[in-house]
Amino acid sequence: MTPDPRLGLMRGDIAGSRWPPLFSSRAASLAALLHQLDASQWLPADAIAARQRGQLGMVADHFARHSPRFARRLAEAGLDAAALARPDGLAALPLLTRRMVQSTSEPIHIDQVLPGHQPVRTVNTSGSTGEPVIVRRTAVNQLHWLAMTMRYHLWAEPDLTGRLAAIRANMVDCGEDKDWGVPANLFFDTGPGLRIDIRTDIRAQLEMLQRFRPSSVMIYPSNLAALIDEADARGVDLGFVARWRTLGETLSPDLIERVEGREQGRVFDCYSSEEMGYLALQCPSGSGLYHVMAETVIVEIVDEAGRACAPGERGRVLVTDLHNHVTPMIRYDIRDHAEAGGACPCGRGLPTMRRILGRERNMIVKPDGSRHWPLTGYKQFREIAPIRQYQFRQHEIDRIEVRLVTERPLTGDEEAALVAHLHWKLQHPFRIALTYFEGTLPVGRNGKFEEFLSLL
């Protein structure tokens, strides 16, 4: 495949060197990495897998020599570091749980840092699962994170000179800026940017977007749903947004239909985690498949027996970090579920996932012990009653609280119809408790929101 022509327009930071551009320090490594990623995505799938195994072998050997804890993990499985570099070798290693990462009796990280991997920084996950973890990541991890951020821009944006807005948690220096910020502004003359803190009132968010008129918006799915509701209520046309770049939460088919079905722009999703970085991006070809960021991670989707899922099958997501040399995040059970994908018609050799299903805590549990992903249907809700936002919280095995924000108080008939609809969709006569909120529903400590949350 031909290289992305935009990479040939990169701007260097060495005075007097416009073409070819020259870069200083870390910018040079990042620029080189971007060119390599542009080529590696087109490698055949077996070539990508072979290079992943070679990199994993180096990481495993490092930890086998410097981490007694990892060495024991290998020995207990009857493996050595070299075994992980062989086909199917990784699958023989028992998974790494969040509780194992959390253990304080023997920290999982090591103090030996390879040359060029400093500085090391600490990442604290949000703890929204009730099991917060602390992971140390290196400067190499940060370099790959910047490169994958740039890949996200290149895949999602046909024109880097467009206007980009970002609505996220933990934003600093909110407001308008002349460009998109790092890493895009290191190499390109981008369009202007706008940063909005997720805690900003949804009405104020809508007004800021109207003034700025971005062509693309990076946003959590729940925030996008709230924006659409507010825009509908106020008769605001969001047609100036061509791309909604969702991240941070599970993207539901309902939301995709609400946006793209009404020609409100295209939805382009990103799958990532705080402790592991970028995991997958939706294919820019429009296939809908998610390409795994195979240059930085190995992603396995396994069934209950630990076997690899075939395309179309759903299973647990295990992630291996190929470049973290201070915390052995190898076969880490991230507690997400996904549907395995097949070869993408775009021609990229990167592995695929068809759909990200969500966290374990997003599965409903029935009194008979069975579990499944709850499909409730926003569209049907709106046909029953003027519901603007909802959330399900399973407090007991037979009781679910339904939190609602409505345009007006519901009638008794509407409440009864809603409960009947939920019994049908959830396939069980749960005790349903309706709780009403004004404005918007509260989000988690990380600024994110989940439509269904099991508290069992």
From TrEMBL:
Pfam families: AMP-binding. InterPro entries: AMP-dep_synth/lig_dom, ANL_N_sf, CapK_Type1_Caps_Biosynth. Gene3D superfamilies: N-terminal domain of ligase-like (3.40.50.12780). It comes from the Bacteria. Residues 119-319 form the AMP-dependent synthetase/ligase domain. This is AMP-dependent synthetase/ligase domain-containing protein.
